[in-house]
Amino acid sequence: MQLLKQLTQITAVSGSENNLFDLIQREIKPCVDELYTDALGNLIAHKKGGGKKILFAAHTDEIGVMVNYIDDNGFVRFSPVGGVDLYASLYQRVVFANGTVGTVCFESKSDVKKDLKVSTMYIDIGARSKEDALKLVTPGDTGAFVGDFVHRENTVVSKALDNRAGVYILIEAIKRLKSTSQDLYFVFSSQEEIGLRGAKTAAYTIEPDVAIAVDVTDTGDTPGCETMEVRLGGGAAIKIMDKSVITHKGLRDLLVRCAREHDIPYQFEILAFGGTDAGAMQTVKSGAATGAISLPLRYIHSPAETASISDIEACINLVSEFAKKDFILV
Amino acid sequence: MLKILSELDGVSGNEKSVSDFIISQVSDLATQTTIDTMGNLVFYKKGKKPSSKKVAVFAHMDEVGLIVTDITDDGYLKFAQVGGLDDRILLTQRVSVGKSKVKGVIGIKAVHLQSKDERSKVIKSDQMYIDIGASSKEEAEKLVSKGDYVSFCSEFCRLSNMRFKGKAIDDRAGCAIIMELMKDCYDNDIYFCFTVQEETGLRGAQVLSRRIDADVALVLEATTASDTALSEPHMYGTALGLGPAITNMDNGAYSDEALKRFVITTASTRGIAYQYKLTSNGGNDSRQIQTGASGCRVCSISLPCRYIHSPVSVADGNDYESMKKLVRAVLNDIENFLSSDQI
Fold first, then answer.
1. Same domain, B214 and B84
2. Which of B63, B198, B199, B335 is catalytic?
3. φ, ψ for residue A102, nearest 5 deg
4. Quick check: ipTM above 0.85?
């Protein structure tokens, strides 16, 4: 879990994904044939083979805040980057790439209970003046929410498990993959949280036959939550549908068969809200058979995202076993 | 130049008079001119040296406006909006309808006849109509037809303090700057692109980005300035007089970190004023350009503009000059960026 911990604690908000590249490259370089980056901030690993072109995508970016404006007293106004729940962000700490820590606050005379707007919120970075603040942050800088990594028996709690857990799953799957007859691309994709952007251009260049997003999904196993089949500890979730994609039926069947053959625990996922890179990859150019392998995750987009270690293990197995396989897609 | 461009009518889907004018002015300066089925206009200009990467500059030709949807028995024209318009700015506007530029006004019941209730409410645009002076359907149909585009009539003119007002500053300002910059010769090959239908959903750029598939693109735009008495400073977006605005992030795209830094360094080393766009609202062609094909490093540079999407947009001549200077400097030095290890 040391690697997962490292991955989650690096600040890499959408647009600054390169903060993760050194670590990922160090881990997988010996196991792949080619490793390159592109204009959107994707890191792409290629493991050559003669068969079908299969693309696995795990996005590297996390949600956060962007500095917009600094007032005369050194308080920072900001924009959310990605799906930030404003209420959940109140009094959270954010950390910028240079280590500056700030607290998310709101104008105390504003009506926080009824109508919390980002225009009445600010970040206190402890600066006394605009000049003082500008030494620490500049407009355009992004900060991530702080959330320590905690490892309890079979669960982990941290910020950015969405989607560093997916990144970790791909890294570990690559390491386990000794040989393959398929032509494999592992895309560590950028800017998913702000509109599935990196995966879209990566799929455009690679033109895969099969595209699989490896990301997190919501669960339906906590008190008073929306009804949903997925539960923590129930295994790798094979996506059937979300707001962005309907998984290719043949691909879904193949994933299920692969899980059964290798005794990998799995469950089906239908996500009522939200989407993944799969949505962007499916319709690029002439299209790809697309699906997703999802890690069940509680409290998504909070600093206390919670995942099960056995689910992570199931996802790694499913990715690596599927990547080895020769198959006919119908 | 900006005056002529601003006064041309080119509501989304009907950009022809703008593109004809641009072609007449600058096609001599280009190595190759292409116009696609949608009406996007591209001037490719070969550089003095061989280029390894594709560099493009974009501005959109279209403007917001109206389109005639129906003609009433009394000869009034019903209309729909083309692009994002605020109903409140429509009343009492002077407009020009169709190819033959039939003059009209957007009317409203006289204040004397309105009930107390009516006076305090904003009238929705579907309750408004254009009055071209016709007194019957037949009479109106001789002058205009359903589907005719409607543009605002607004003379471009100077205000005090180097400022000017006009319609369609968004984005004829970008067009004018590109046209002026095309006169220069650059080391790199450059694609100078003028897109259509930005205001109705970045549609021209969607197909053009696939055709060009540039490595680096500058998107020249006009953006909202709300440095007016009723806003708080952190909600200004941009302010007039502080130089062109550089976008960090908006709803559609994320400026490439390295390219943005290069643009800012270029501005600071040459003493060119610039500001950041302070809010993340809105979006422009850069969304399609960034992700339309294999991926492109984009940066939006915008002219701050008050009362944008209205016939009385106000912008600052000094900002305009600084923007031109900045984009010229970036294009002149772009090879330094392309060959740097950041990309």
1. no
2. B198
3. -130, 165
4. yes
Question: Who's near B54: CB < 8 A, 6+ residues apart?
Answer: B189, B191, B212, B213, B214, B215, B216
Cβ separation A139–B276 shorter than 8 A: yes
Task: Report the CATH number that the domain containing residue A113 is assigned in CATH.
Answer: 2.40.30.40
Q: Which residue from A66, A69, A77 is facing B249, i.e. has the nearest CB?
A: A66
Closest CA to B144 of B187, B104, B91, B85: B104
Please give the backbone phi and psi of residue A145, each rounded to the nearest 5 degrees, phi first. Answer: -70, 145
Q: How far is C-alpha A60 from the chain's CA centre?
A: 5
A185/A81 same-domain check: no
Residues A277-312 have pLDDT tens digits of: 999 999 999 999 999 999 999 999 999 999 999 999
Alpha-carbon dihedral sign for residues B282, B285, B290, B296: negative
Write the DSSP string, B196-235: S-STTTSHHHHHHHHHH--SEEEEEEEEE---STTS-GGG
Token code pair at residue A273: 């809200």
Please check whether residue B106 lies inside any domain of the structure.
Answer: yes
Is the same domain home to A113 and A208?
A: no
Q: Say how far apart CA A306 and CA A152 lie, in whole Å.
A: 10
Cβ <8 Å between A201 and B293: yes
Longest dimension (CA), chain B: 70
Whole-structure pTM value: 0.92
